[in-house]
Amino acid sequence: MWRLTLEDDSIITEKMIGYWDNLGKDIKIKEIVFRVYGNKVVFSNFSGCCIARIGELSVSAQQRHVGYCIYCIKDNIVEETILKFNNISSKEYSISELQVPERCIRNGVN
After folding, report:
1. What band does 61 get if pLDDT is binned at 50, 70 and 90?
2. What is the value of pTM for the model shown?
3. 110 vs 98: CA distance, rounded Å
4. Strand 106-108 relative to strand 48-57: parallel, antiparallel, unpaired?
5. Eight-state DSSP code of residue 25
6. Are 88 and 80 in contact (CB under 8 A)?
7. What average pLDDT score do residues 7-32 get?
């Protein structure tokens, strides 16, 4: 579950709003924090960001939540981090390669 610190130092959590799409487009995010196996994973100093849930189909054909994909944009570079419940991976690429809809991106404070 994620926690956001906004430009005015107020806090918004995933539990409070449910889904990333419910987050207003006019906010500015200073920091994103996840707790992974008791450790804090922090993202900050970005100009734009998006968080997407990762799901997998189970044997019973029901989708279950298995992690998050975090996109942080800085200086026209995207850092894509995948946080699954059993591992973390990251890669960087040009913003021109970003395949996330523009409506998903929220402003950051950098």
Report:
1. low
2. 0.88
3. 20
4. antiparallel
5. T
6. no
7. 94
Tokens for 44, please give them.
Answer: 């900050």
CB 90 within 8 A of CB 81: yes
What gap in Å lies between CA 96 and CA 110, rounded to an integer? 20
DSSP string computed for 36-101: ETTEEEEEES-SEEEEEEEEEE-TTS-EEEEEEEEEEEETTEEEEEEEETTEEEEEEEEGGG--S-
Residue 70 and residue 110: Cα distance in Å, rounded? 17
Q: For Cα atoms 57, 58, 60, give the angle at the middle one, nearest 5 degrees.
A: 115
Residues in the chain: 110
Residue-range domain boundaries for the chain: 2-108
Mean of pLDDT over the chain: 90
Nearest-angstrom CA–CA distance, 36 and 110: 24
